[in-house]
Amino acid sequence: MWACCASSTLLLGANTASGQGSESAPGSYVAPDAEGFIVAHPELIHPPEGSRSVVLLGNPNEPGLYVMRITFGPGQGSRPHFHDQARHITVIKGNWWVSTGAASDVYAPDQMQKVGPGTFIYEPPFGHHYDMAKDEEVTVQIMGMGPVGSTQIEQP
Description:
By secondary structure, this protein is mainly beta. It contains one helix and eleven strands, in the order H-E-E-E-E-E-E-E-E-E-E-E.
């Protein structure tokens, strides 16, 4: 039943695009309580010093559903790449800049689209994209099925 609910949640919001690079070593994990529930208050969702991500559920490097939050400082982001699994992203804080589709095969940050807090982004498997925080801190929440692999797109 849980798997059915999780699958339904993932399917509810499909159809846009964006994302970010690989997160091979997530910063920290939020642990469930003794009965398996996770209640992650905002103070638990901040990345630890020296990291930029917090895994709320699962693990993007292992099979199954994962949910993570990544915080990017000004000027941080990714170069053109794609993932082998779909990713479902919500902008939590700040203005995120994205480039999607064939146009994103060549890095051109001046041609990115700005998306604000509350925006939902669906990245289809193998969908080319890149993204960044330009002049402010940005937090995004990513959901997907692991393991997820990332491939960088060679630049001319």
